[in-house]
Amino acid sequence: MIEMNKDVQIVSSFLEASMAPDPVRAATFMSEDVQITFTGGRMMPDPQAITAFNGSRYAWVKKALGDFDWMDRGDHTVVYSNGTLYGEWADGRSFSGNRYLDRFEVRNGKIVRMDVWNDSAEWLLTPEIAKA
């Protein structure tokens, strides 16, 4: 079995806690001054804000985790997570196959930056392109 990079494991554990959703546990993987930017340039102060935002958009949402790619940048590690989102919109319609890409920077065992991109906004604007 291939051993996972320690910073990839931090990101993986954060994502698991986020999907529970357990924002209190998720916060333990982030630095106190973490910079979180969601699709559209929305700044989030902490994982609780992520949970609140997702609660306004989705009845529930989970990630089907794809690959993790990472690179050592000397003083930090950059970790990419890709895959798809599945769940239910706030209006009760189900969805799956919603692509996402998350970029993390991990420094000294904590996530210091998180950038999030996904198809949700496009799918909400043009529902016929969404897969159910």
TrEMBL record:
What InterPro entries has UniProt attached to this entry? NTF2-like_dom_sf
Entry protein name: Nuclear transport factor 2 family protein
Q: What is the lineage of its organism?
A: Bacteria, Pseudomonadati, Pseudomonadota, Gammaproteobacteria, Pseudomonadales
